[in-house]
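Bench log. Compound arrived from synthesis this morning; before running ITC I wanted a structural hypothesis for how 3'-phosphate-adenosine-5'-diphosphate sits in the protein. Inputs:
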Amino acid sequence: MPTLASMATPEEGPVPFEDALVVIGTNLLSSSQHREEEHADLVATLPSALEANGVKKLRLYQGFWLRDIHVPAVIALQRRFQPRHDDVIVASFPKCGTTWLNALTFATMARRAYPPAGADHPLRRLNPHQCLPFLEGLFQGGREAELEALPSPRLMNTHMPLPMVVPSAVPGCRVVYVCREPKDMAVSAWHFLRRLQPDLAFSVVFESVCDGRMAFGPVWDHVLGYWRASTAMPDKVLFLRYEELLRDPADKVRKLARFLGMPFSAAEEDAGTVDSIVRLCSFDHLKGLDANKIGHLDPLLPVPRDALFRNGASGDWVNHMTAEMASRLDRIVADKMRGTGLNFR
Ligand code: PAP
């Protein structure tokens, strides 16, 4: 049985989290849901609303709507999460390209231990989300010891707004963020939520996007937090767009590698490593793998894994929104973005 320390060296990049768990010996289900009762008095005082599918309760905490189970997780995270200087956090608003960026960042960072064209690459047997610990999920389950046990460099994933993950003004680690055109995000969110509730009307999800009342929302405040940090500290926060990844994934993978301090060498360029990473993480390739077709996302979230690989394109909003709906959301977003240097036109 390997030890965690023997599974990776800093040069080899992050250990796939699912593999690390085998060594840590954690049973996902037995240790989950520890923290829901913590801070119950505080949670009960927070403004509340129902999520669009009417199932989960949201609470407004520090300016963001969070699922109520995530409030104690965030409090614990803010108090106890200690970033290491070589940590990397992949961050996003849900349905904006998380799965893809998880895969690309893992494949880029781990390319020495796992050549991307290799038949035994972890992304050929694991869903991209299984390769990275999900911060709020771990803190929700009282499982932060697993994070501590991971060898450096750690690669982690979150949907949390920046100040909740990295409260200090200058992040003590690197953060890679991906945003997406909000109308396409809304459409993707609706399709995803429908897997749990098939009769959910698109208009209900659309209204919650316009109101900012989605889990981890408002989306504009989420995006702007990371955007501003990326302009103030470009060496700490890399800001990517889903649409740019679609347009030129190889260019963005090179940019990602430079940001991570591990640019592709001439030998790697000659060997086609960038293209191998792009191919490995492409929508069509990942969608076809058993790891992404069979099973559910999480023992606690009964959504089939294939829900993460629906369409993988931009502009699908035209098939779901009237012109009035589109211009209404465009106006709301443009208003929020005014003067920030960021836009979705
Ligand atoms: P999450 O927040 O639940 O993790 P996330 O991965 O952020 O979801 O978003 C899912 C979207 O990314 C889906 O978009 P769609 O509904 O418009 O199709 C999904 O298809 C897309 N996606 C997932 N993997 C890839 C990929 N490798 N390349 C391009 N798009 C992808």
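What the model suggests: Residues 28-32 have pLDDT under 50 and may be disordered. The beta strands are 48-50, 57-61, 64-67, 88-92, 155-158, 174-179, 237-241, 296-298, 301-304.
ITC booked for Thursday regardless.
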